[in-house]
Amino acid sequence: xxxxxxxxxxxxxxxxxxxxxxxxxxxxxxxxxxxxxxxxxxxxxxxxxxxxxxxxxxxxxxxxxxxxxxxxxxxxxxxxxxxxxxxxxxxxxxxxxxxxxxxxxxxxxxxxxxxxxxxxxxxxxxxxxxxxxxxxxxxxxxxxxxxxxxxxxxxxxxxxxxxxxxxxxxxxxxxxxxxxxx
Length: 182
Hints:
By secondary structure, this protein is mostly helical. It has one domain (2-164). It has 7 helices and no strands. It has helices spanning 2-6, 8-33, 41-62, 70-73, 78-110, 123-145, 151-160. The protein is elongated.
């Protein structure tokens, strides 16, 4: 029960993924084994996929797994690296604010429409874009504020074993080409 409170995003992603697999499996069983068709299953699985994508993107910002060009930024001194980090954070934040605003406007337009299979308001699946963009904005600003985007802090994180999965440690370069050992 502690995981629900400590890592609600991760728990939500797991629940949504299990729900998609369960619904899709039930759809296959009903259609090909029982010769019956579930009218709502494909639509609900699609809506859950929308939520999975939006929340997974936020999770990637949380663990800093999105692609970054550190080899370019590492060529500059610390002051310029901080300025580049602030510029990137400001640009991404501006995009996410505009995206969240446009998502909210779109949700208001479709709130009275209902999905044909499930009968739910179309605001429910489309609100995934709003929630996802707000969570992404939160993690972008949080990572910048705590200094997680700075290379010297990333080196400290490596020593503590908390480096994100997409991070590259410049001190661990070998003469072996990438993927040669696999």
